TrEMBL record:
It comes from Histidinibacterium lentulum. The chain crosses the membrane at residues 78-98, 105-121, 127-144, 186-208, 220-243, 255-277, 283-302, 309-326. NCBIfam families: calcium/sodium antiporter. It is found in: Membrane. One of its GO terms (biological process) is intracellular calcium ion homeostasis. InterPro entries: K/Na/Ca-exchanger, NaCa_Exmemb, NCX_ion-bd_dom_sf. This is Sodium:calcium antiporter. It is a multi-pass membrane protein. The lineage of its organism: Bacteria, Pseudomonadati, Pseudomonadota, Alphaproteobacteria, Rhodobacterales. Keywords: Membrane, Transmembrane, Transmembrane helix. The keyword Membrane applies.
Length: 327
């Protein structure tokens, strides 16, 4: 068992550390090249915490492990809402007042519904992947236009996802002067990319070996252990926002992450390694993802707060979900 657990844990450590270096180097490079801080924040920083999911899902799909590839995406979205929003609400009740966040919540639900619908009737091919990636590009472009005229606290999910990461690591603030030179920044980014690729490989290999060793499906491992591991950056950033009583930021971080997971990671995975989503995910987990996404949208649009007891209910819901799918 040690031969399985060590690559799994080592892969997660390399993924998260490599993602940090990759984003930091990329932000420094873009800042040195004179790219707008708003553009950097909405793209490089905003997508930063999704790097572990992206690399893991692509490598799993290439390794012919679709249960891990798509289980990671769907399981991460479910964990983001039930587990991470639940923990953030326990730390400080979440109230969503921003109209922009409500609109982003609608995008999140729409993406989940379209993904679940497509997966039920056809394999995730390159055409679908290209459409998902194009939709992500349009979404980010719209978010950029929205943020240019945003007033007060009316920020969207992409902005809050970036802000949450900068709260944890102020070095990722594109508005601050860059200390490292351009060659050093490039070296940091390349080194981070190497660590991420290596970490993804170790994580996928360890997850496949764990599934075989325990006699359970790769899909269950992808939906639980892999999804939880790659969601650690979102957990940390949302917990920090919760501790600082920034409920909108914690909420936006999760909504933005879920949109990136489906449109970006799902899209790139289908583009690079097209294939069918496992039947177990299609018939159950996709429906759970859509259901909890609708629940989160309902909370946003009704202006209700997610109180501490409701956070505890979300956590209990995640425990029930894991209990149901674990053999």
């Amino acid at each position: 068992m040690t031969d399985v657990v060590l690559p799994l844990i080592g892969g997660l450590v390399l993924l998260i550390a490599g993602g940090e270096f990759l984003v930091r180097g990329a932000v420094n490079i873009a800042t040195r090249l004179g790219v707008s801080p708003l553009v950097i924040g909405l793209t490089l920083v905003g997508f930063g915490t999704s790097t572990p999911e992206l690399v893991t899902s692509v490598q799993a799909a290439l390794a012919d492990a679709p249960g891990i590839a798509y289980g990671n995406i769907v399981g991460s979205n479910i964990a983001n809402i039930l587990l991470i929003v639940g923990i953030a609400a326990l730390l400080a009740p979440i109230a969503v007042a921003s109209s922009a966040l409500k609109r982003d919540g609608l995008v999140m639900v729409s993406a989940a519904v379209i993904f679940a619908g497509l997966a039920a009737v056809m394999p995730m091919g390159r055409v679908a992947g290209a459409l998902f990636v194009a939709a992500l590009g349009i979404y980010i472009w719209t978010a950029f236009r929205q943020e240019r005229v945003a007033t007060g606290g009316d920020h969207g999910a992409v902005h809050d996802k970036s802000a949450a990461l900068q709260e944890v690591d102020p070095a990722l603030d594109p508005g601050k002067p860059v200390q490292a030179s351009l060659p050093v920044s490039i070296l940091i980014a390349v080194g981070g990319l190497v660590l991420v690729v290596l970490g993804g490989g170790f994580l996928v290999d360890g997850a496949v070996a764990l599934a075989r060793g325990m006699g359970i499906s790769e899909t269950v491992i992808g939906l639980t252990i892999v999804a939880l591991g790659t969601s650690m950056p979102e957990l940390v950033t949302s917990v920090v926002a919760g501790l600082k009583k920034q409920g909108d930021v914690a909420f936006g971080n999760i909504v933005g992450s879920n949109i990136y997971n489906i449109l970006g990671i799902g899209g790139f995975t289908a583009l690079i390694a097209p294939g069918a989503v496992p039947a177990e995910i299609v018939t159950f987990d996709n429906l759970v993802m859509v259901g909890v996404s609708l629940l989160l949208l309902l909370v946003a649009w009704t202006g209700l707060r997610i109180s501490r007891w409701e956070g505890a209910a979300l956590l209990a819901g995640y425990a029930v979900y894991v209990f149901v799918i674990w053999p």
